[in-house]
Amino acid sequence: MDLALSDLLVEYELAARTNLTQAAFDYIAAGAGDELSLEESRAAWRRHRLRPRIFRGVVAPDLSTEILGTPLAMPLLVAPTAYQIVAHAEGEVETARGISAATGLMVVTTRATRVLEEIAVELRGPWWYQVYVLKDRRLTAELVRRAAALGARALMLTADTPYIGFKRRGHFAPVSFEQHLVNFSTHLTPGATFEDVTAGINQDVSISLETIAWLRDIAGLPVVVKGLLRADDAVACLDAGAAGVVVSNHGGRQLDRAIASAVALPEIVTAVEGRCPILVDGGIVSGADVFVALALGAAGAMVGRPILWGLAAAGAQGVQRVLDGYRDELDHAMGLAGVATIGDFGRDLLV
Q1: Band of residue 286 on the pLDDT scale cut at 50, 70, 90
Q2: What range does the domain containing 19 cover?
Q3: Which of 63, 226, 262, 267 gives the lowest tally of CB atoms within 10 Å of its CB?
């Protein structure tokens, strides 16, 4: 890369501030409450120090891996982020182009602002579908079946968002009702009132562990549960049929003062005891952060905001450059630390 990833992300965030309306920028940048969790999420990864191995003969580290049967060129996924049209006129379609160019994996969100079919056609590799369970469960079932028919390889159930956490800035996405409904519209009951539609597409506060098996049975796909910060919740999800979990504080956007994902990850890894792959997101802004996550026991990491800064600043090319930056930095760190493959990571690499 011509720029370090940290410099590139600063450049792209500044460009996004210029390119976007204040409302759009704030929607992407904001954290919940006083934004303490937002600030601490990044800092928590940076507290770890590395213990490199020597004499390992690592000429070219192999970053490839596989999670739930999905092959990955590197252990990094693009996290689901809603309403990407606020960052670029082509929204999720443009993001998909950049991810495909970087041979990455996109988790497409329920709250996408481009039609699922348009997104899927741009994804040349495997992809997953993120699920917000709606009050109108029929709508959720229809969307999940639709995603599965289009080729989604797994479902990611977001469990930490029964409703939207309060934000002092950017609380509401600056999108129209028509943009909000772009993937719901074909499944709505003809003649439904505005009030009924609005109520039906809100998130269902009553979801429970039973929802995991319900989704799995509808789509015939593995279900990964996102939004865990506690070991007991992770074990409960696995016992209920989850195929994997994502340690996440939702990018600091839900419950302010919730612990950082980097803090929660070790105890969840210990409790899960290798029963499933564990992913992690929140504040991961460098290849070194990904390295730490893998050494702590994660099977892979996910990134959200950095992708949106790349999208807002330079479209698909910006998305590709961000992902390439993570790849280059992880490759560099693995080579210097004597780590040849993703399977060679271990806690002995960290202090």
Answers
A1: very high
A2: 5-349
A3: 267
- How far does CA 47 lie from the centroid of its chain? 22
Active site residue 332: no
pLDDT reported for residue 85: 98
For residues 184 and 198, give the distance between their C-alpha atoms in angstroms, rounded to a whole number: 11
CA-CA distance, 302 to 77, in Å (whole number)?
5
Is the separation of the CB atoms in 197 and 177 below 8 Å? no
The alpha helices in the chain, defined as continuous H runs, are: 5-19, 22-29, 36-46, 91-101, 116-122, 137-150, 177-180, 194-200, 210-219, 231-239, 261-272, 287-295, 305-337
Average pLDDT over residues 250-265: 97
Q: What is the CATH number of the domain that holds 164?
A: 3.20.20.70
**Distance of alpha carbon 175 from alpha carbon 182, whole angstroms:** 11
Residue of 48, 88, 187, 250 with catalytic role: 250
Q: Domain tally for the chain?
A: 1
Torsions phi, psi for 96 (to 5 deg): -60, -35
Coil, strand, or helix at residue 281?
strand
